[in-house]
Amino acid sequence: MALLWVFGAVVVCFYQVTSETVSFIKSPMSQTTVTGRSTGLHCEVVGFPVPEVQWWYVEGEEPEETIIQLFDGARKDRVRIQTTYNTYAASTIRILNVTRNDSGTYECRASNDPERNALRKTPKVKWIRSQANIVVFERPYILTEPKEANITTEVLSCNLTEAPSPIKSHHWTRNGKVIEETRRSSTVAFTEYKVEKTDTKFGGEFSCVFVAATEFHKSINLSVFPRVVAPKHNEHVTENDKAVLICESSTYPDIDDWQWYFTDDSLNKKEITENEKYNIKTLRNKTTLYIHNPASNTDSGTYTCQGSNQIGENFDVITLRVRSRLAALWPFLGIVVEVIILVTIIFIFEKRRKHEDLGDDDNVGSAPLKSESAANHKDKNVRQRNCN
User: Fold this and answer.
1) What is the DSSP string of 72-87?
2) What is the rounded distance in angstroms from the CA atom of residue 95 to the CA atom of residue 31?
3) Count of other CB atoms within 10 angstroms of residue 65
4) The model's pTM
5) DSSP-assigned beta bridge partners for residue 266
6) How do residues 16-66 score in pLDDT, each as one tens digit?
7) How many CB atoms lie within 10 A of CB 191?
């Protein structure tokens, strides 16, 4: 029994020590934004047990300030709170479509006291708190010129009127990416950007960005004639395999209609529709044609991919060659024939050479030896001398 009391005392002491270690490892940072946007705050807390996290809104000034707890779905479903508990607690609050009334002080609270939410008792461990401000400015008016641009436009401009805070700098972006050469440290509320080449590669959503207490921006859409490109203009596939033809586009606005056409060797052109043989998969600015079980005599030819947007249409062509499955045997058969011809030539040459060598050997056997010839002449001379 005494051991149980000692163990209980140790547990209580351990809990008291660890429960006092609740602390912020990441505090919320103040935000500045404009009406109509979304903004958020984030905090992370560590402790044992893992502490609970709450969000509160401080309204008014001391000593008449009021504190209101915020829940997910508050303010007509514009408040979103997401909290995760693992080895530590992490919580994020987001406010959608902010208004001027959303300006104020927001408080992240954390505690792991088991009686922290008791209404009739004073918590043993107080809530730790970290505050941050959200400042909401009225969205300023930015005059753009032109409002909608096309391929003939070269100069885009923005004029910011009634800036709510002093301007520090400005720059331009294209499709969300900063155009680095446009960065300027300037307090002037006017900026312009000259599009050097207004062709199909330079379309997109251009935005002028003014940096003050927060960022103010306005977009100008530069629409251009569509540009359709096939990464590979020649494709080869074996008969009964699957052929894959691809066309892409980096046009703004996006291609809203893709079509495929097939032109055979007799220049007969027909539109391709999806069926058991053809399958068409279209993604954002990309189309893929799948041809199942292609035949060399019917599917070889030219395939045209055509894309169109609100400005116009463009196309590119791909040549498909379907090889017969027996085509792979022809190189092998050619090698075999070459080997047979070579062996035949070598055999004939060796046979003829052997025959010639045998003929030479017969002639050598019938001719008199040098030593015998010399002996005969010697005897003949001797006989002549005896006659004299």
Assistant:
1) TTHHHHTEEEEEEESS
2) 12
3) 11
4) 0.60
5) none
6) 444 558 999 999 999 999 999 999 999 999 999 999 999 999 987 777 788
7) 21
